[in-house]
Amino acid sequence: MNRLLLLGLLLIGMTWSASAQWTQMTSDDLELPFAEAIVKHQGNWYIGTAGGVFKSTDNGLNWTLVNNNLFSVYNRLRIEGMASVGTTLIGTNRWEGIVLTTDGSSWSLPTSGLPNNYYMTELLGVVGTRIIALIEDDTTGDFALYYSTNEGSTWTKGADLPTANRDVYLFSANSKVYIVHENNSGNDEFLGVTDDGVTVDLPPFTPAYPENSIEQIVKSGDHLVVYGESSIFRYDLINDGWTDLSTSWASGIAFAAGGGNNADRIYASVLDGNLDVGAYTSSDHGDNWTALTVPVTTGKEFAMGLYATANEFMASFIDDGIHYSADAGTNIFQRNNGALATDFDDMIVSGDNILASLFISGIFASDNNGDTWSQWNTGLPASTLQHVTGFLHDGTSLFANFYVFPDDNPEPDRVVKSDNNGASWSEITAPGTQDNLKLLGVNGSVLYAYSTTGSDKYYTSNNGGTSWIEITSNIPANFMPLKVCGDGTNAYMAGYETTSGANAIRLYISDDNGATAWTLHMNGINLANLDSRDEDDDIYLVTPTPGVAFLHIRYQGWNNKLLRWNVNTWEEATTSGISNLDFEALAYNNGVLYASSWSSGVYQSVTAGESFTELTGLPAGLSAEIFAFNGDQVIVSTHRGIWTHTIATNTDRIRADNKQLLYPNPGNTIVYLGVDADLVEVYSLSGQLLKSVVPANNQLKLDGLKNGIYLVTIKTESDTYTVKLIKR
Question: Which pTM was predicted?
Answer without folding.
Answer: 0.81
